[in-house]
Amino acid sequence: MSMIKASSGPAPTTAAGILTRPFWHENPVLVQTLGLCSALAVTNAVANSIAMGLATTFVLVGSAIIVSLLRKIIPHQIRITTYILIIATFLAIADMSLEAIVPDVHKAMGPYIALIITNCIVLGRQEAFASRQPVPLATLDALGNGLGFTIALLMMGIPREVLGNGTFLGVHVMPRSFEPWVVMMLPPGGFFMIGLLLLGANWRDLRKRTRAQLAEAMAAEAEAATTEAPEREVAVV
Amino acid sequence: MSDLFWIFASAAIVTNFVLVYFLGLCPVIGVTNKSATGLRLGLATTFVMVLASLAAWVLNTFVLAAAPFLRVIAFVVAIASIVQIVELFVKKTSPSLYRELGIFLPLIASNSQVLGMTIFQTNRGYTLLEGLMFACGGGLGITAVLSLVGGIRERTDLAPIPAIARGPALVFMIVATLSLAFMGFAGMGAA
Predict the structure, then answer these.
(1) What is the pLDDT of residues B78-115, one digit of tens each?
(2) Domain limits at A37?
(3) Looking at the domain assignment, is residue A124 inside a domain?
(4) Quick check: A3 and B25 CB within 8 A?
(5) Nearest residue of chain A to residue B19 (CA atoms)
C-alpha cells in the first residue's frame, strides 16, 4: 500500500523536467512516501545508502527500458505479473553484482537487496510511466526517480552515520570528545529521521500554501481597489 | 522445545518485523486509522505468512537447491498465488469479512513482510517447524504493532495537533517512540 499524494505542480513536459522533478519536488520518498522499507532499513551507514540507491536505480532503469520496449506486446490483464518478473530478473543481476564487487556491503544489507522487488517505487514507475511512454522518456524518468531515491537515502544516511557513529563513510569526522548518539544507528533513529524529514516536507508545503493564499488575497484586494477607485472619483466630481 | 519458543518470541517481540526490521511500513501508515482494522489485517497477514513459510520450505527443499538464483522470483510467484487463493477462499466463505478487508487483502501480496519472512527463514536455515513458528511469531508481532499504532492514532484524532505534524510525519513519530520502547527487549533470548 502506498499513499500517493497529488503532485503539487503541473506535470513535467520537457525531458529535463522528467529527469529532475523527482530529485526534489516529486521526491519518491519525501513527497510521495514510497519505498520506505528499504529507505529506513539500510540508512544507518552512508556506504549502504549509496549501494542501495544505486542498486535500486539500476533495477528501475533496466526494467523501465524493457517494459517500455514491450509495452505494446504485454497483455493488459497480466501486466503486473510481467512487470514483477522483469524486475526480478534485474534484481538477480544487481544482487549477484553487488555480492561480487562489494561483498561487505552486500552482507551488511542482508535480505533488503532482495526486498527491492517489493519497493513500491519500482513497480509504481512501470505502471504509471514506463508502460505508456517511449523508451528515451521512460529511461529518463526511471533515472530521475532512482537518483531522487538515492538523494533521500543520503539525507537520512549522512546524519544517521555522522551522529550515530561519528564517522562519514567510515572516516572519523566528529571531534574526539563527541559522544556518539547510538540511538541514531538503531531502528528508532531511522523512524525519528524519516519523521523529521516528513515534518520538514510538511512545513515547506504549508508555507507554500499560505504564501499562495496571501498572494491571492493581495491580488483580489488590488483588483477591488482598481475597480473601486474610478467610482469614487466620479462621486467626487 | 525451548528453541521453538524463543524463535516465536524473538520474531514477535525482540526483533519485531515492523519496529526492528522496517518491513511492511505501508500498511502501518495506510490501515492504522482504527485499532480494529489493524488487528484484522494483521491476522490476515499472519495467515498468509504461515502458508508462505510452508511454501518456502517446500520450494527450498525440493526445487531451489538446484537453482538458488531463482529464489526471489519463485518466492514472489508463490506468495502471489497464496494471496490469490486466500482471497478466493475468504470471498466464498465470508463475504462480509471480504468486504471489510477490501483492497488490503490482495495488497498483502506486494507486502515486504511476507517476502522478507521467507528470505530470513531461508538465510537462517530453519526447519519446517521452526519456520512455521517464526512465521506465526512474526505475524502476531505485526498484528500487535498495527493495533497499538491504531489505538494511539484513535487518541490523537481528538488532540489539538499542529497542522505541520498531521499525516505520515506524526505516524512515524509514534512508531519511533514504540520502536524505542521495544528496544527494551533487545538482547533477550537467542535472537
Answers:
(1) 888 888 888 888 888 888 778 777 777 777 777 788 88
(2) 15-176
(3) yes
(4) no
(5) A187
ipTM > 0.95? no
Would residue A40 count as lying in a domain? yes
- Give the gap in angstroms from C-alpha B120 to the nearest C-alpha of chain A: 7
pLDDT at A6 over 80: no
Asked whether residue A120 is domain-assigned, the answer is yes
Contact: B76, A115; criterion CB under 8 Å: no
Residues of A in contact with B116 (CB under 8 A): 111, 115
Domain count across chain A:
1
Chain A residues bordering chain B (beta-carbon distance below 8 Å):
1-3, 33, 36-37, 40-41, 81, 84-85, 88-89, 91-92, 95-96, 110-111, 114-115, 117-118, 120, 123, 183, 186-188, 190-192, 194-195, 198-199, 201-203, 206
pTM exceeds 0.95 for this model? no
Count of other CB atoms within 10 angstroms of residue B85: 12
Closest CA to A151 of A41, A22, A62: A22
- How many CB pairs lie under 8 A apart between chains A and B? 112
pLDDT band with cut points at 50, 70 and 90 for residue A2: very low
Q: How many residues does chain B have?
A: 191
Residues of A in contact with B168 (CB under 8 A): 3, 33, 198
Interface contact flag, A187 B179, Cβ < 8 Å:
yes
- One DSSP character per residue, chain B reads -HHHHHHHHIIIIIT-TTTTT---HHHHHHSTTSHHHHHHHHHHHHHHHHHHHHHHHHIIIIITTS-GGGHHHHHHHHHHHHHHHHHHHHHHH-HHHHHHHTTHHHHGGG-HHHHHHHHHHHHTT--HHHHHHHHHHHHHHHHHHHHHHHHHHHHHTTS---GGGTTHHHHHHHHHHHHHHHGGGTT-S--
Task: Decide if pLDDT at A1 tops 50.
Answer: no
Which residues in chain B have their CB less than 8 angstroms from residue A88's CB?
A: 72-73, 76
User: Touching check for B128 and chain A: CB below 8 Å?
Assistant: no
Distance CA(A124)–CA(A115), nearest Å, equals 15
Quick: pLDDT tens for A171-213.
777 777 777 888 888 888 888 888 888 888 888 888 888 888 8
Query: Is A192 within the bounds of a domain?
Result: no
